[in-house]
Automatic annotation (TrEMBL):
<dbReference type="InterPro" id="IPR006683">
    <property type="entry name" value="Thioestr_dom"/>
</dbReference>
<comment type="similarity">
    <text>Belongs to the 4-hydroxybenzoyl-CoA thioesterase family.</text>
</comment>
<dbReference type="InterPro" id="IPR029069">
    <property type="entry name" value="HotDog_dom_sf"/>
</dbReference>
<dbReference type="InterPro" id="IPR050563">
    <property type="entry name" value="4-hydroxybenzoyl-CoA_TE"/>
</dbReference>
<dbReference type="InterPro" id="IPR006684">
    <property type="entry name" value="YbgC/YbaW"/>
</dbReference>
<dbReference type="GO" id="GO:0047617">
    <property type="term" value="F:fatty acyl-CoA hydrolase activity"/>
</dbReference>
<protein>
    <submittedName>
        <fullName>YbgC/FadM family acyl-CoA thioesterase</fullName>
        <ecNumber>3.1.2.-</ecNumber>
    </submittedName>
</protein>
<keyword id="KW-0378">Hydrolase</keyword>
<feature type="domain" description="Thioesterase">
    <location>
        <begin position="32"/>
        <end position="115"/>
    </location>
</feature>
<dbReference type="Pfam" id="PF03061">
    <property type="entry name" value="4HBT"/>
</dbReference>
Amino acid sequence: MNDFDTPYRGGFVGREHHFALTVYFEDTDTAGIVYYANYLKFMERARSDMIRAAGVDQVTAQRDGVGVYAVAEVNIRYMRPARLGDDLVVVSAVEEVRGVSVEIHQRVMRGGEQLTDARVTAAFLTPDGRPQRQPREWVHKFKAISERQ
């Protein structure tokens, strides 16, 4: 039985997190090709879902004044265009965990075809926007993910 009122959640396949989505008209330009900035939105949704699936509760951390992750750097290579109606999967993997940041490798895939390749650095910030050390428990969770087979 399907529960159509439950939001879609991605999940882990080994050390990679997979997040599926479909390209809608709002994601494209007049030629039906995905606008380049929308790949960043796709990857943000996938990263947020990956962090949640890893057991990191950003909502509570933000509400309690602990801090939040913010993108500090993105390096992206666009390889092929996605088009209206395409079914895509954003594949995310934790590459490196540092004291105040996490580096995540993200690829947008259409079947076996890679459309983008990106490296994203997410820094952990205090509520007033200053970098600070990530909670130790979160560092352990990210390291455990990066070491999976």
